Amino acid sequence: MRASFRGEQRPIERLYDIAFRTDLPPAALSLPGVLAAPILVAAQADVDISDAAFDFVRSIRVFEITYHQQHNPHDGCERWGSVFLGTYGEKGDYSRRRSSISAVPEASDFGFPPNCSNYWHRSVFVEWRDYEGSYGHDEVHY
Q1: 108 or 42, which is more confident
Q2: pTM, whole model, 2 decimals?
Q3: Where in the chain are the domains?
Q4: What 3 state SS string does 105-139 have?
Q5: What is the number of other CB atoms lying within 10 angstroms of the CB of residue 20?
């Protein structure tokens, strides 16, 4: 597990702290002139991103990676993993499907240990090509 400590809170952290405080009366958290009821939308937006100008959006790939490995003295090496791959279509729709461990890009921190030691990896890895075609990626472990 990774942990860090910062002396000062970021503004978004302060907002979360305020929003989830239980010692404040509900009126203290309400904003005047703002409707509290949700606004219902009858239909989804019909967005067409099939033009080449939007290649960078369709290049985004999201990998949800979970992998567990442990040595069991009775059964040897036990391995379990799952990968889901998410992509964007020509209408801006996001779809997600099951994929395989071998499909995880090399840029990810994920890697098989050389021996059957205890190993746990859980992350979301995102890769893309920007409008100039340059490769980029980011990974969040949780």
Answers
A1: 108
A2: 0.64
A3: 52-141
A4: CCCCCCCCCCCCCCEEEEEEEEEEECCCCCEEEEE
A5: 9
